[in-house]
Each structure stands twice: as structure tokens, then as C-alpha cells.
Write a structure and sequence with these properties.
With 210 residues, the protein is an alpha+beta fold. Helices cover 20% and strands 26% of the residues. Strands 1, 2, 3, 4, 5, 6, 7 and 8 form an 8-stranded mixed β-sheet that branches. A 3-stranded antiparallel β-sheet has the order 9-10-11, covered by helices on one side. 40% of the residues are buried.
């Protein structure tokens, strides 16, 4: 298994692989636009990692679920601006436009959102100030887990051609489902390995439809 150091070589590799990927974007005027951030930073124990949050159980939507930092696009702002704003509001991490090094495919959710995932390079040893109203816990998922058999796993979906994708990252300790698991899986496939993997056809479990 490869060792991933948080250095310029990794940043260049990820950016190049993302740039070579032909994006699939969803143009649906009925879908609510949302943006999320796949933030690449250093793990407290060393090596590269991405940030993941656990939503508080008191939240009105998707409470208690694992999520990438992000949220709805407000009127008058771009998808990129929404991603960086939400990152700052949730984790107190302020990154400029230059931190965005690529994008993954749009993902349509059962709850009526079109999610656009941006990949941001935060570098090493970032300081996070989680907002307790939006974040119960912050997790660092090391690239060693991304690059393992932690993903993908599948369950039967509503139809055979749309299985439910989930992951079993040791850092979390139990299963995590799409849409977050699907986007993280695509990040692994494209950003780390340059594989043209699509994930839009993977379904979500019923508890995530709300």
C-alpha cells in the first residue's frame, strides 16, 4: 500500500488526476444546489487525510449522519463560494479560492439536492474551530484507509442496477453510507489512482432520503 505524505508531490498528483477527469455535472432546475468539501490535510498521527464531520443529533435534517463539510448554495453565490463559506462556518477553516484543486462528479440525492464536491488542499497542521451547532465531531480519515478495502461495500438497493454503496473505515468504527461514502470512494479512485470511476448510479439507504 502506498505511503501518502502531505507534500507538493501529492498535491500535484491529485490536481493532475482531477484535471484529467471529464466531469459529469447535473443541470436540474428542480434540484436544490449544494456544495461539499473534500479537504486534504495532515493526519494528527502523520501522513495525508481528509476531513469528515459527524452531524449533531439535534439537527433537523440528516441528524447524526457523517458528512463532508458543506451545505446549500445561497442566492447570489457560486458553488465554489458556498463550499468555502460552509467550510469556514462549520470548521472555522478559511481557505482562499486557490485552495480548490479540482472537482468530482455531481451527485443527486434522494432528498432533492444536487451536490457538487470540491477538492481543497489545506496543507499540514490546520487549526479547526468546529461549530457545535453543526458539528458534533471531526474525524481525520487517513489515506491509508481510503486506499484499503474499507470501500466500497454494497447492499441491495431499490433496483438491481442501483446498489447502496457504503464504507467501513476503522476511524469511524461502523458503516457509513452514500452519498458521503460514494463521493469519498470517487475521490479515492480519481484523485489517488486516476481511474475514471463514476458513482452517480449508487443509491442511498432509506434513512438518508429525508
Amino acid at each position: 500500500m502506498a505511503e501518502y505524505l502531505i507534500d507538493d508531490a501529492l498535491k500535484t498528483q491529485i490536481a493532475a488526476n482531477l484535471a484529467a477527469h471529464p466531469l459529469q455535472q447535473i443541470e436540474d432546475g428542480n434540484a436544490r444546489a449544494a456544495s461539499v468539501c473534500v479537504v486534504v490535510t495532515s493526519h494528527p498521527d502523520g501522513g495525508a487525510a481528509i476531513l469528515l464531520t459527524l452531524r449533531p443529533s439535534k439537527m433537523g435534517r440528516h441528524a447524526g449522519q457523517y458528512a463532508l463539510p458543506g451545505g446549500k448554495v445561497d442566492p447570489g453565490e457560486t458553488d465554489e463560494q458556498a463550499a468555502r463559506r460552509e467550510l469556514f462556518e462549520e470548521l472555522g477553516l478559511k481557505l482562499g479560492p486557490g485552495a480548490i484543486i479540482g472537482c468530482l462528479d455531481d451527485y443527486a440525492t434522494r432528498s432533492g439536492f444536487r451536490i457538487r464536491p470540491f477538492v481543497l488542499w489545506a496543507g499540514s497542521n490546520v487549526t479547526l474551530i468546529p461549530n457545535p451547532d453543526e458539528v458534533e465531531r471531526v474525524l481525520y480519515i487517513p489515506f491509508s484507509e481510503l486506499d484499503s478495502d474499507a470501500i466500497p461495500h454494497f447492499e441491495d438497493g431499490e433496483t438491481p442496477e442501483r446498489p447502496v454503496l457504503y464504507s467501513r473505515f476503522p476511524t469511524i468504527g461502523h458503516s457509513m453510507y452514500s452519498p458521503t461514502a460514494a463521493m469519498i470512494y470517487q475521490f479515492r479512485e480519481i484523485a489517488l489512482h486516476g481511474r475514471p470511476t463514476r458513482v452517480v448510479h449508487f443509491d442511498q439507504p432509506r434513512f438518508a432520503w429525508r
